[in-house]
Amino acid sequence: MEREINLLKAEHNADKVLVVIDHLQVFQAKEYKDQIDKENKLITGFKGISERTGATLLLISQKNKAGFSGKGRLEEIKGSVDIVYLADLVMFLQEEAEKEQEQVIASGEIIRQIDLVISKNRYNAPTTIHLNFDGAYGIFTESRTR
Q1: How is residue 131 annotated by DSSP?
Q2: What pTM value is reported for the model?
Q3: 3-state DSSP assignment of residue 84
Q4: Under the phi-then-psi rule, with left for phi > 0, alpha for psi from -120 to 50, and beta for the rest, what region is 139?
Q5: What is the pLDDT of residues 123-142, one digit of tens each?
Q6: Is the separation of the CB atoms in 139 and 109 below 8 Å?
Q7: Is the backbone of residue 72 left (phi > 0), alpha (psi -120 to 50) or beta?
Q8: Exposure of 19 in the CB half-sphere (CA atoms within 13 A)
């Protein structure tokens, strides 16, 4: 991965790149005891790659089974504690239950109201940002009505 980042930086004459890691399970770790140990080794490796290349790594995780009824708490993230500990920013997209969901119809499309819950922000305070999501175009805009 580090070699690919450096090749992309050279090809595009860029100092910084954004790397999105959506499937942690496709990465291999050498000599690990269990899934938590594997994740710890991978996270440590990703941190080193980020420091050496200057790349921003965005690790997409999901909530654990107990977290689906929760309100965006850090302990609801699936995986090891290192994922939460090393992250500079932890955020969730969260919507209200369907029956409570206020929907706006604009141009024949349904706009859903979704909250971006920032549970951890190393450089600022946690907050919630109210958004409208237009599924037809995949566009989020800040909600001014809530």
Answers
A1: E
A2: 0.59
A3: helix
A4: beta
A5: 888 888 899 888 778 888 88
A6: no
A7: left
A8: 21
Maximum distance among all Cα pairs of the chain, rounded to whole angstroms: 55
Which ranges in the chain belong to alpha helices (H)?
Answer: 2-11, 35-53, 81-86
How far does CA 11 lie from the centroid of its chain?
27
Contact by Cβ (8 Å): 133, 111: yes
Q: Residue 69: what residue type?
A: S
At 143, give phi and psi (nearest 5°).
-85, 130
Q: Output DSSP code: residue 114.
A: E
- Contact between 90 and 119 under an 8 Å Cβ cutoff? The reply is yes
What lies within 8 Å, CB to CB, of 129 at 6+ separation is: 115, 116, 118, 142
pLDDT above 70 (res 64):
no
